[in-house]
TrEMBL record:
The lineage of its organism: Eukaryota, Metazoa, Ecdysozoa, Arthropoda, Hexapoda. It holds the Pfam family LRR_8. It comes from Anopheles sinensis. This is Uncharacterized protein. The keyword Plastid does not apply. The keyword Repeat applies. InterPro entries: Leu-rich_rpt (IPR001611), Leu-rich_rpt_typical-subtyp (IPR003591), LRR_dom_sf (IPR032675), SLRP (IPR050333).
Length: 397
């Protein structure tokens, strides 16, 4: 497909008539238009009058501030429209009404504060929409009522606190990361969801299609809801408020391969947790004391991160000879650590503590203490006390 490239175009005034192309009255057959090193504060109607057959239109990085409602009147063949990196603050509710063939639209990195509910009412072939990096706060319920083929939406890096994207039945992939959502509902067809860096505490819905769920840096306190997504392959729950992981909600997650739980407040993980396909398990930066018997069920584990906890012992039976494991910054019992390290390949331990101050000793680069049973028991009592307190708090709330 041959491009028509406009370089160093400069349009800031509405007082003049503009002409595009060769200057001939006959419209051209060009199907892709690109602007390079140009400035267009507004888009003249004459652009599409001269190129009515265009299918791909790049109007990015033009400092565009406004788009008139009739500028796309001759854009009935446009399939992909790129309007990113401009200064657009508002859009007329009928500005896209003539774009009947549009399959993709990008409005990334503008200054949009809202979307008219009828903005996409004629965009029945729209499949991909990306509006990342704007100032959106709400997406009203009827906004995507007519987009019956919409499969991918990216509204990351906004200020959205209200968006019921489960109302888009065709949706397969959504990115709502870096917003202000407090709850999300997963629709039945959804396969991938990135909702990291929000304020989410409630997850609802049911889907046998969902494969990847990213809820990093939210306000998640419990994991009972994970059983509603039995086909998950990747689950990201780091930087939340989890204190305990129970095995029951994970019983049906037989396909889970990646589970990241680092940087929570975990003090307990159910030792009967059985995830037969799990390859990557990150429990680092928590408050764990004991993981005895837990890793016995994780036959395919390739990476286990346990660093930055309060671990004293772990039952040293790891079945995968290719495993990489991080153990630094814990409170290991030396006898247990010797037994564990002896069962691992020389290259398995992937981190180091550095210098071990007395009374700590160095075992393959990891610090440990002799006869650590007493602090271990004291810590268990403290953890059990904290656990009971949390249970009382949850019942009270």
């Amino acid at each position: 497909m041959e491009d028509c490239v406009f370089s160093h175009a400069f349009i800031i005034s509405r007082e003049f008539e503009y002409q595009f192309g060769s200057g001939k009255a006959q419209p051209t057959e060009k199907k892709r238009i690109v602007f390079s090193s140009s400035t267009m504060k507004w888009i003249p109607n004459q652009l599409l009058d001269s190129f009515p057959n265009v299918e791909i239109l790049y109007l990015e990085n033009l400092q565009t501030e406004a788009i008139k409602s009739d500028v796309f009147r001759n854009g009935t063949r446009i399939k992909r429209l790129y309007l990113g990196n401009n200064n657009i603050e508002t859009l007329d509710d009928d500005v896209f009404d003539d774009l009947h063939a549009m399959e993709l639209i990008s409005l990334d990195e503008n200054r949009l504060v809202g979307l008219p509910p009828t903005l996409f009412q004629q965009a029945r072939k729209l499949k991909t929409l990306t509006i990342a990096g704007n100032n959106l706060e709400r997406i009203e319920d009827g906004t995507f009522h007519f987009t019956i083929e919409l499969a991918f939406v990216n509204i990351s890096h906004n200020k959205v606190n209200f968006f019921k994207f489960a109302l888009i039945p065709s949706l397969l992939d959504i990115d709502v990361s870096f917003n202000k959502l407090k709850e999300v509902t997963v629709s039945q067809r959804l396969q991938y969801m990135n909702a990291s860096y929000n304020h989410i505490g409630i997850v609802t819905g049911f889907s046998r299609k969902l494969r990847v769920l990213d809820l990093t840096s939210n306000n998640i306190h419990q994991t009972r809801w994970v059983q509603q997504f039995p086909e998950l392959v990747e689950l990201y729950l780091s930087h939340n408020q989890l204190r305990e992981i129970e095995s029951e909600p994970f019983l049906q997650l037989n396909h889970l391969q990646i589970l990241l739980l680092h940087n929570n407040q975990l003090f307990a993980v159910d030792p009967s947790m059985n995830l037969p396909m799990l390859r990557v398990f990150d429990l680092s930066h928590n408050n764990l004391v004991n993981l005895d018997n837990m890793v016995h069920h994780l036959n395919k584990l390739e990476s286990l991160s346990l660093d930055h906890n309060s671990l004293v012992t772990i039952t040293p039976r790891v079945k995968n000879d290719q495993i990489c494991i991080s153990l630094a910054y814990n409170d290991w019992d030396c006898a247990n650590l010797w037994t564990l390290s002896s069962a691992l390949p020389q290259t398995a331990i992937k981190d180091r503590d550095g210098n071990c101050p007395a009374p700590y000793e160095d075992v393959r680069g990891i610090c440990c203490r002799q006869n650590a049973a007493t602090p271990y028991l004291e810590r268990l009592l403290e953890i059990n006390k904290e656990s009971r307190k949390c249970e009382v708090d949850e019942k009270t709330n």
